Amino acid sequence: MPQPDQHDNISKARMLLATRRFLKLDEWLLSQMRGWQNQGDGHSDYGLLMHPATLFTGTESPPLNPLEILSDWVQQCPQSYHAHTLLGMVWHENAWIIRQPQEGEDVADHQWLGAQLCCDYAVLSFLHAIELHPRPTHALRHMMNLSGGFGEPYWLKALFAGEVPKPLHEKFSIQGSEIWQAGVAHIHALGFEPATHWPQVLPDALQQTRKNDEEALDYWLRMAMSVRHADVGTLESYLLFHSAFWGGSDAQQMQIIDSPLCAEFSEEERNQFRANAMCDALSGDIADRESPQALELQSRLAGLLAQPLSPETRIRLLDLAGICIAYWQDDDQAGLAVYDDLFAVSPQAMPGHDAQMFISRAVLANGHQEGLPVLTQLLTRGLSQANDPVLVAFAATALQSGLYGLPARPELCSGLMEHAWSLILQAGDEQPVKDLVTLAHDMAINDDLDAAHFLMTEMARHGSAIHCYELYFFYRNGWHQDVPEQYHNDSNAMDCVLSAARSGMVPAMFTCANALREGLGGEPDYEQAMHWYQRAMDAGHLSAAYFRASCALDKGSDAEKRQAAEVWLPEILHNAQHPDRAEAAYTLGMAWLTGTGVKKNRYTADKYMEFVLELNPESDAAKQVHEELSGSLRARMNLWQDKRKAEREDPVAAYRSVQTAEPETSLEDVPQSDNK
User: Fold this and answer.
1) Is 55 within 8 Å of 29 (Cβ atoms)?
2) Would you say the C-alpha torsion 136, 142, 148, 152 has a positive or negative sign?
3) At what angle do helices 465-475 and 431-445 cross, to 10 degrees?
4) CB atoms within 10 A of CB 382
5) Contacts of 164 (CB under 8 A, 6+ apart)
6) With CB atoms 3.0 to 4.6 Å apart as the test, which of 296, 461, 521, 582 could cross-link to 491 if both were Cys?
7) Coil, helix or strand for 670?
8) Radius of gyration of the chain (CA)
9) Strand, helix or coil at 321?
10) Are 79 and 128 in contact (CB under 8 A)?
11) Cα torsion through 182, 186, 189, 193, rounded to 10
């Protein structure tokens, strides 16, 4: 539990930093460090204070620039251990930020280079810090973290090898290269030039301390533990680099925990390490049911839960374990029992998002009604804490009709739904509204259709486009469950899909266009249907292009019919990846057969039907038309007559070549003859 004066200490550190009273801050941190370093003060805030996330996440406006203020601190107090250590940590954080991959892409070379340039500055700062204090635990620990994540810079390896490292431009031929320019741009954006010259010797504290062939991670761990024995934070970081994420495994972590390396830690601390390793195992890929790994994990989990653990650790373990246990034992009720144990840990204990959704699915969708008390506890605590929009809205729905173990309190529902919506807006994330759609489906599977309708209606009323879209299908009885007749209402359905379309939901735009074309809840509206088809197309909905063309052929003016037949449908046929290519070919063939938008020609129509059958040999409609056009002598005579009138002998040749085009062959790919 946080100590009463913890917030005061954090506020004091931030205030001294913001007002640049660096000498006072350094003296105060040194006084805080003594008890922590000697491990005699079990409630020291020093470890918390020595982190940029603590010092630079206050309410200052404008926010402090960590690199700027720490560089100023180093300049004013060049002998400050804390200034150099914190500066190195901030440079290390910037390296991680730069190397974050773009969505769906690998980390680019220039990102690695930019990150490495940050690491150079980080290592320089840590080496200065190591020179300035006899027991520089944080500097050594973060050298271990940096070497585990990025590796040691070449120049530091050279120093450990007893060599004088070459300057950057002499070591690598990088000047003027595009990757160098792009990599340097990352550090320029931070307001710095890259470091290019290095120390000539190691700090005295590191001289002759490294064993031959000792891995960097192991070396920096050994050095950190030599100045602060049994340092929990250091070993936790070390174990993390042996987790599955870093190419290790939970078994590898367990081997380290049970080795002499951890002999100086208490059993309570080792159990904490074991719990962290177990959480890694439970949060990764779940072991196959009945596999030796699954059986071993269950045995280890049971043994660990039998040990005295902190409430936070026990909750974290149970949160991850419930879904795994349900899978391994092929029994949702076994998973629900785990979450019942979680609730028993403390009155404030709550499972995470995945566990919450599992509880709903197990009780409502999978019919494990014996687990209803677990769902009731979840909703009750969701109401008491009222910080999770999904649980607040779920509980409000239950209170509306007195479901899932909650009393009927409809007078509370409106305020709760308002609160849930405000939490969704604050989060700025679509996941809560998607989760509430899933819960509505779970309720419907449990035959609570009135509750599902209430939840979707309330969310739609507050502006949720996805719930408006769901209600469109609900009112049309096109939902995943049969909907009672009293809810069938085409007018309501049209209002809902139009609202969702206006909110910018692309599938709703397409569905809205189809509904307007159909005349759902009123008369067909061709102009508005075409408007929404165009909106959907502009937003990237491929099928909208085909349906717009077919709508124009069906109800458009003569000019629009010609445009559909001569431009819109051919554009689709020229796209080999279009999902409606076969349908477009069939529709264009029927246009030639009926003379809609083009001059009627049965030969051209039959060629399109043949093309449809090339694209989709199972098309019964195309087979039937082709048979009618060519299945008799009289029909073939008609084709021969129309062939003489056709503009092209093979009207689909251009589209067929799109489908079968081969990649261009280079000269290197062509077998060369010996005879020139």
Assistant:
1) no
2) negative
3) 30
4) 23
5) 158, 200
6) 521
7) coil
8) 34
9) helix
10) no
11) -90
Contact yes or no for 481/444 (Cβ under 8 A): yes
pLDDT at 668 over 60: no
Question: Which is nearest to 95 in space by CA: 123, 69, 71, 116?
Answer: 116
Tell me, what's the pLDDT at 648? 83
pLDDT value at residue 660: 45
pLDDT digits (tens, 9 = 90+) for 406-438: 999 999 999 999 999 999 999 888 999 999 999
Cβ burial 419-441 (10 Å sphere, 16+ → b, else e): bbbebbeeeeeeebbebbbebbb
Burial (CB count within 10 angstroms: exposed 0-12, middle 13-18, buried 19+), residue 29: buried
Which stretches does DSSP call E strand in 167-215? Answer: none
Q: Which ranges in 428-505 belong to alpha helices (H)?
A: 431-445, 449-461, 465-475, 490-502
Task: Tokens for 372, please give them.
Answer: 């209803």
Q: Domain 542-658 falls in which CATH fold?
A: 1.25.40
Q: How far is 99 from 110, CA to CA, in rounded Å? A: 9
* HSE, side-chain direction, 13 A CA sphere, residue 193: 4
Domain with CATH 1.25.40 in the chain: 542-658
Lowest mean pLDDT among 66-80, 100-114, 128-142, 522-536: 100-114
Question: For 4-48, what is each residue's pLDDT tens digit?
Answer: 577 889 999 999 999 999 999 999 999 999 889 887 666 788 989
Instruction: State the amino acid at position 285 in one-letter form.
Output: D
For residue 429, the 8-state DSSP code is -
CA–CA gap between residue 482 and residue 490 (Å, rounded): 16
3 state SS of 246: helix
Q: Positive or negative, the Cα torsion across 76, 156, 249, 269?
A: negative
- In this predicted structure, the answer to whether residue 50 has a pLDDT above a threshold of 70 is yes
Distance CA 446, CA 341 (A): 25
Distance of alpha carbon 238 from alpha carbon 240, whole angstroms: 5
What size, in residues, is the chain? Answer: 676
Exposed, middle or buried: residue 203 (CB in 10 Å: 0-12, 13-18, 19+)?
middle
* CB neighbour burial string for 323-342, b if at least 16 within 10 angstroms, e if fewer: bbbbbbeeebeebbbbbbbb
Q: Residues 455, 393: contact at Cβ < 8 Å?
A: yes
- Predicted structure pTM score: 0.81
pLDDT of residue 40: 65
